Amino acid sequence: MSVAASITFMPALLGVLGRKVNSIPVVACTRRTTAAWQWWAKVLLRRPWASTLAALVLIALLAALPSR
Questions:
Q1: pTM for this one?
Q2: Per-residue exposure over 2-27, b if at least 16 CB sit within 10 Å of its own CB, e if not
Q3: Total domains in the fold of the chain
Q4: N or C terminus: fewer CB in 10 A for the chain?
């Protein structure tokens, strides 16, 4: 239901806003990232298909667990 709502709402909202959508200032992130997060991002981005497959397998395993 949320996907259907977003598919219809987002284009309508962008149509109403028109060029005003770019008038909202974007605040740059000034916080520095840690080395561990940079390393993890490089690992994931080095092999995106393998990362995606691993994430899907993990999600499938968690979904297969019996609920209590």
A1: 0.47
A2: eeeeeeeeeeeeeeeeeeeeeeeeee
A3: 1
A4: C
